[in-house]
Structure formats: structure tokens, C-alpha cells
# Entry
Amino acid sequence: MKTKKNLLLLLLLLVLPFTLQAETFNVKKYGARGNGKKMDSPAIQKAIDACHKAGGGTVLVPAGTYLSATIVLKDNVTLHLEKDALILGTTDYKAYDNLDPFTEGLGIDVGWALLVAVDAKNVALEGEGAIDGQGSALKERHIKVDTRPEGQRWGLRPFLLRWVRCEGVRVEGVTLKYAGAWTSHYFQCRNVNIHNVTIRSFGVAHNDGINIDGCQHVRISNCDIVSGDDALCFKTTASKMGCDDIIVTDMKLKSNQAGIKMGTESMAGFENIKISNCHIYDTKNGGIKLFSVDGAHLRNVEISDITMDEVRTPMLFRLGARLSVFRKQEDTQQPIGVFENVIIRNVKAVAADKAQLTPPSGILITGIPGHYITNLTLENIHIRLLGTGTPEDALSQVPEAIDKYPEVKTFGPKIPAYGVWARHVKGLILKNVTFELKNPDARPEIICEDGDIQIYK
# Structure
């Protein structure tokens, strides 16, 4: 008899975890109205706090419009936005909190956010609903009272999402719209999964789509991004934790800046990163741009199976020595970094006729004197270009710009080669890299200065 009781107890213990469900906390039970008029973020925060106190579960946001300032997610809480649920950011920029201030690549203090989690574990945002930051309306209201130049004041506007030093982050299914600044920022997080997210964020400056900043063990897939600034961007704004073990696949990327970018802020490393099966289109400032300019070791990066349409300057690779510090109270300047062991393969690109460079060029690669981009392989690349380069264009001198902000225009307006222009490189390999010209171009197809290059047709 005792044996049967023990067996029943064992079966109960095995079944119990599958039968018990985490509790659901409906924000309307905590006072949220969802009418788009009353400030609902205090009620949403009460629901999150109650869920967290109970040990975790789901905070449910039903259909409706929820006017909000800063909302803070906490351990073991999933924020679920039902279909037709909209969290609408207030246009009062002073209503937002900055729980982790820092300075971005242009030297502006930033960090305010609508939805934020700091030092949290197992946090998620999911569902068929949306978050809208009302970026244009927020800016219009902001500039009426803040008369400084735009380059000085924009940093006060909130990001849409911020995840800071979190462990176990999931963002799935939601639509993110019209941030006041960056759309989403993941800083020093581990075990991050971003899947099936739609981003429509443009109308004000600095509307980056997804910013991965010093994160490890990251998986991003099946996202559709239309952004005013870089669509998919990897950063390291602190020297203590780099981007490592990241896999990205099946992305649609449109941007007024770059499609895929790495290293505008680059203090710590970018290593073991694979990006594949992406379509980049209608970008105004580059298709693939990889930089180390603040001390990062950028290495073991592979980007493959990429199509590009109407992309200004398809590729730019840069090792430089700007050596900025973005968290000045906790970080120090780093030595010049490393750019090595990068593979770009299987790319078909149609370059835009109108570009930052006149006439357009396909691929720019440059280190600085004494610091070389090493072992960069470009394989199975085909780029269609306007052409129209003149013999005078072929004599153009490209500035070193050793300590400048890394950008295509930094090296323009003219490049002396129409296909590949490379400088300060070692072990550059071109395998089946071809260019198609709409018009004749008097510039050479390939130029390599201060470096060695192997070309395989």
C-alpha cells in the first residue's frame, strides 16, 4: 500500500508542472482604461509589479490604446499585447525616465525609454499588438520649448525599448513604431531571442531599428524593419562586454542609413557573428558596413546570402582610431583595435545611381597606417553600378581620416576605383567578385594601396 502511495505521489509531482499555469494579470483589473486619453502607465506598472511579486507570469494588455510614459519590466514577467492592443507613448518627453544613462557615438547623452528592463531575468514582450512612440509628434512638442540646435537636444527623446544587463530576453510577434530616438536597444544582455518583429520607425533622426550593444548568445530571425536610421546595428558602448555568439537570419531591411552595420560605437569586440538570408533595399547610406574605430577586436564574422536593391554604397569596411569613450564615469580609452577573419559571400547587389559618392563605387576597404584589415574574404559577389567615372576621378586622393566618425562620406566624394578600393590591408581575398556597369567608367575596377590582395576569377 505504501508503495502505491509513493507511486501516486511521484506521478503527481511529474504531472504538476505541466498542469499548473503561471498567473495572468490583466492591466484593466489594475485600473488601465485603454481609451488613449488617460495615462495608463501607472496601472500597467501595478500589474507588472503584482506579477513580479507573485513569482512571475503574464501581464495581459487587451485591445485598446494605452497612453504611457516609462514602464519597467521585472523578473519573470511576460508583457503580452493582444491583437489591436496599442501602447502609445506620451508626447511629453519630460515624462520618461533614464534608468541607465550613457553617451552615444555622436557624443549625445541618451537612455530615456518607454519600455525598459534593467538587471532583470526572464523578461519577454510578445503578442500581435504594437508600441508606438509618436516620435514626430513628440519632437514637434519638444522643439517648442527646447531651442538648442537639433544635434544637441535629440538625445532627450526616448527609445521605444531598452533592455539593460538582462538575462533571458524574448521579443516576439509585436510591431514597434515611430520611436523618439532608437527603436530598440539591448545592452549587455545574454540569451536574447528576437523573432517575427515588425519595425516601422522613421520620421525623426536616429530611428535605429534593432541595436545589439555588447550582448552574447543572441538569435534574431524573420524580422521586417523599415527604419529612419540603421536597420540592424551592432554596437559596443562599453569595453567590458562584447558582441559574441550571434546568429541572424531571414531579415528584410530598409533604412535611411545602413542595412547591416557594426561598430559605430566599438569599444569591445564583435566576434563569432553569422548573418544570412537577408534582403536589404532602398538604403540611403550603405548596405553592409563593418567598423572597428574605438578599440574593438572585430573578427570571425560571416555574412552570407544577401540581396540588395537600390543601396547606396553596398559595402564599407573600416579599421580606424577615433577611440571614443561612451560611459566616461566607468570606462577608459582603449588602444587601436583589430579587424580580421571576416567573410562576406554570396551577395547580389544593385547599387543606387544616386549615392554619397559621385560617381558611385561598390566596395570600400581601409585600415590606417600601421594597422591593417587582415584576412578579409569576399566571395561570390556581384554588384551592378552606374559607372560614368572619368579619368580625373581615377586620380582622386582619399583622406586617411584616422580619428574621424566612420562613414562613407568621410572618404568621398570621389573614390579612384569603381569596384573595390582597398588600402592598408593584408590577406585580402577576392573570389568571383564581379561588377556590371550601366555606363562606361574610366576608373580601374580594383585598386589596392599599401596591401596585398589575391584575386580569383
User: Anything to note?
Assistant: The first strand starts at residue 23 and ends at 26. Confidence is low (pLDDT under 50) at residues 10-20.
